Amino acid sequence: MQSAKYLLLIFCLLLQACSPLKIPISQSIEQITTVEGQAAIQDGAQLLARKMAIRDAIRQASLQNNSQINSRTLINRNSIALDTFTLRTTTLINNTKVIDEWIENEIYHVRAIVRLTTGSMCTPQYRKRLAATAFPMVQHSHTSMAESNDLSNGIPREISNMLTQSGAYLGRNKTHTSLYAQPDLAPEITGTQPYDISDDMTLAQRSRVQFVLSGVIRDLESSSRQYYRGTGISSWIKSLNHYFFTTRSITIDIYIHDGYSGALLFQHRYKDQASGDIRIPKDVMVGSEAFNNTDTGNKITKIINQSVKDIQESLNCYPFYTRILKIEDNKIFIDAGAQERLNEGDQLVVYSSLGTINQFGGTQQILGFDKKPTGVLTIKEITPLFAIGELEAPPHMLGIKVGDWVKSW
Q1: C-alpha span between 217 and 181 (Å, rounded)
Q2: What pLDDT does residue 276 have?
């Protein structure tokens, strides 16, 4: 009887040891809140006011959860000359559902259920276009003719491919183009005049993309293969070790500019060090198995993978942009369609142009573009490459023109 108890105990211990380990998985915490938002109705644009009221409700929901507000008030001659605030929240909007809406005194009110999450990355509704440009080397002497010449083109190509595979972006390969005539000055890309339209905006408009990926390879220098001075076995071993086990410093700067405004949205420097097999053979392509088998290639691949994660975390929450291609009567043709995941019934905000803001006394030195939300475009037809929508009022009454911006919010 006693032996049977021991056998049962051993059997239970074996079952426990063989059971699968339960590894705690870090999950984002969700919170549901009900909030109200409001916006003024201007020029009878109720859909636009509704969109802005929903945005206000989302802002109110974010304010209730771990927000940080920095305010600044400037008083000049007993009157408020400047009153601004900035808001930063630690929550992301996962889903929003309007449960009630009404109009009172030309104010559009909405009541919505907002689902908040503490995760670090948004899930974008639409795919954003991105053009990948070459990463020039700051010091060409850091590589030799016997090594691969695919780094400047291959690194941005792989970043673009991985972002496209994520389903949130549509990559365009423009790696034959470099934005930086002087790579050591990157990310400065303006011309001789400080307020000229930057090359990234020109490239974005020509390539019909929202973002422009660029970068520079700042360092790829190998340690020198020289002998240590001195006599004896110690100096000889150090010299031998230094000759056969060289190291290579790796520093890559990566940038992403907004192709519509020229603003620098993402900037990060990645550093690592390779040792051992640091040479990348000629004709080896970035991303290939032969590339990853070298220590330098392996370290660069890790940088590529990390940069993709950082870009997604930084830009997935950024609104979707596109432009108006054509206007026919009340129909608006926009430069986005099924491949960007647009659907019939989607509503986008149209921003009409108020002109360019020029430097004082100049004609070509552009400081920026003045835009204002004018109406809401409701998508009626979808094709693979473009979509057709309609506004609440005729486009000519709202001052909307070809080339104006269309945003997700």
Answers
A1: 14
A2: 81
CA distance 237 to 150: 36
Domain containing residue 35: CATH number: 3.30.1660
DSSP letter for 149, please: S
Cβ-in-10-Å burial (0-12, 13-18, 19+) of 168 comes to buried
Q: Is the pLDDT at 331 greater than 90, yes or no?
A: yes
Encode pLDDT of 8-62 as tens digits: 555 555 555 554 444 343 455 677 888 888 888 887 888 888 888 888 887 777 6
Q: What is the pLDDT of residue 173?
A: 96
Peptide bond just before 124 cis, omega within 30 deg: no
Q: How far is CA 237 from CA 65, 215, 221, 227, 278, in A?
A: 61, 40, 23, 10, 21
Tell which residue, 139, 161, 154, 174, has the closest CA to residue 251. 139
Domains held by the chain: number:
3
C-alpha R_g of the chain:
28
**156 and 222 assigned to the same domain:** yes
Which domain range does residue 345 map to?
321-407
- The answer to whether the pTM exceeds 0.85 is no
DSSP string across 271-291: EEEEESS---BTTPPTTSHHH
Q: Is 77 left (phi over 0), alpha (psi -120 to 50) or beta?
A: left
Q: Considering 117, 151, 172, which residue would you say is the last residue of a domain?
A: 117
Q: Is residue 399 part of a domain?
A: yes
